[in-house]
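pinging the channel bc i need a second pair of eyes. not urgent but kinda urgent?? the chain im working w is below, pasted from the shared doc
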Amino acid sequence: MSSPERTSSSDARRARVEDAVRGLLAEQGFRISMEAVAARVGCSKQTLYNQYGSKQELLRQVIESHLGQATGPLAQRQDDPATALMAFAEQHLNHLCDPWTVATGQLMCAEAHQFPEMAQAVFHDSCDNLTNKLAAWFARAMDKQLLRRADPQMTAELFLGMVVGLDFDRQRFKVPHRDTHLKRQRWAQFAVDNFLRAFAPVSN
């Protein structure tokens, strides 16, 4: 078997594992087990342990894979903040409106008091890491004088808050939300435009 074929096969197996984890998180929350993942993927539990080492590491890698996709538009458009932030905002809102994301978020919030260490680890691997990646991107943009100088970490948290708004909470509480791509796109544009006005570079 050639190297490209081995890589393709490995990528396909990883994709099946990630799909299984996402589905099971929405169904089982923090009670997800390596046995359940193996059964859904169609492999042995030992195979998963050989590849990932532990359930915590498996979850971390699945989250990291998603974050890589989520922040992809930023890496591709470092010198064009408007385009990069708009692409990120639209993708992030679409992800938050995915029924899997909503179901997973609801279940994990309900179970966090029962599994505090896992909840904290997931928050660190997802929310904290996303904020850190955004902060690093903002820091580079500020260094290039594409944005006004400010605390990158606080800037990242502010930007995420502007993009998300109240829509994720609306879905959790079963009230009308931005349920079409056009509605989400309009909100993303509004958030990005106002963010860029607030952080426009200072003219010398």
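so The CA atoms of residues 163 and 191 lie 6 Å apart. and The chain has two domains: 1-62, 71-204. — does that match what u expected or am i reading it wrong
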